[in-house]
Request: fold
Amino acid sequence: MVFSPHRIQHTTNDVLLPLIGRRIRLGDHEYTMSSAIATGPFSSVFLVEENGIPYAMKVEAQNKCLRPVLKLDHAVLQALGHQTGFPSLTASGRTDTFKYIVMQLVGPDLSMLLEFAPERRFTPSTVYKIALQTLDRLRVLHEAGWLNRDVKAQNFAVGLGEESNIVYMLDFGLTRRYLENNGSPHLLRPHGPSVGTFPYAPLTSLGFCDQSPIDDVEGWLYMVIHLLKGGLPWHNATRSLNLPKVREWKMYCRRAGGKHHLFDGLAKGWSDVFEVILNTSHHQKPDYHKISQMVLSIAHSENIDLSAPFDWQVNPVLRSLVRLGPLSCNELTVPRSSLANTTMPETILHLHTIGSPIGTC
Reply:
């Protein structure tokens, strides 16, 4: 039996979900469709395996996709997949039915890990190390000429097994080039879309203005504050989201009274980090080194041990989520994936790929 996508006009979920447990051929690669990781109306992610190695395959409908963004994931990962903290890109292409990229499989995102953490909080050591790594991911992304525009815990994930000490940046559907080919920045538009997730979006975005690298860093700070405090003045378990109110809060937090609410309970150094961000113009390159040194200084003043393992490396429940075995005095062991014991069906489904690369779609 040969699977032919040419006659099917359904969504990628309609096409691929029935293929779970079967083998398919995409170009020069032969994969086993193992399970669905995440399915949605715009794109879906599937766990696939080739030669015993698991990968993540992200797919998007070839035609009539309501929000075609896979080319952005492809462009960013093609440029940065060799950098620490960015999943490596293994393959990409398209069939008559869908476009796809196959990339390194990483673990759960920070938001999911937080759900299983005691009292839904990470220890200060883990949060500070997350802050340092995610800031550096933004630096690398910006230096490559891209803006993230959606900095939040859901868009950072943890590596699996021995790579569980690495925080990866994921999901580049809202990224945008801000540098010309010659390295000069694009001219900022007088007006732009409000892009991002309300609680963490910078004030610039909520004011419908074009964003620049320092706006990503502002969103990064809101994410870190949320991880440290368990919430933000404008976003917590008892406060519903409202864009105008969030915008008012972020304007208020630029004044003394608002800063008190935002940084109440935190070390003073964090308000100093906010001042550095506020004093960086949209045409300036953020001083990533200065900000990271400030974070290190705060950690030192608070007696936070940054050499301690991440919470998901010591908590038994979280360890299982990142595929670490039982705690050992000598080493962290990675259990064999259940995929290695999966019996492969004999039928191979051939999905005929189209010649043009995904990056040109």
Q: What stands out?
A: The chain is about 30% helix and 15% strand. The chain has two domains: 5-105+341-360, 110-313. Residues 124-143 form the longest helix (20 residues).
